[in-house]
Design a protein that fits this description.
The protein has one helix at 46-59, and strands at residues 13-19, 26-30, 33-37, 66-70, 76-81. A five-stranded mixed β-sheet has the order 2-3-1-5-4, with helices on one face. The protein is 16% helix and 32% strand. With 88 residues, the protein is of the alpha+beta class.
């Protein structure tokens, strides 16, 4: 798995290219492009959920900190990394 922790800055916007129905789950840094490969099919938000899970793991953050800004039904997606919630 590619380590993307250097991108885990609050407020950062992360553009990814998604490949659904891939042979394996992976996050790959291809030059400047972040490619997320998921094995699930793109229906009922299953692929988006898998992308969030993999991307959060690669960034070293919780899934709840990632917000999908653009591209819910597209292969090109833009995520925003929100501030961590303070525990009280």
């Amino acid at each position: 798995m590619t380590d993307l922790s250097h991108l885990a800055l609050p407020g950062a916007e992360i553009a990814v290219r998604v490949t659904p129905r891939a042979s394996r789950n992976a996050v790959v840094l291809d030059g400047e492009i972040i490619r997320v490969l998921v094995t699930v099919v793109p229906e009922d938000g299953k692929a988006n959920a898998a992308v969030v899970k993999l991307l959060a793991k690669a960034l070293g953050v919780t899934k709840s900190r990632l917000a999908l800004v653009r591209g819910a039904t597209s292969r090109d997606k833009l995520f925003r990394l929100d501030q961590p919630r303070s525990s009280r």
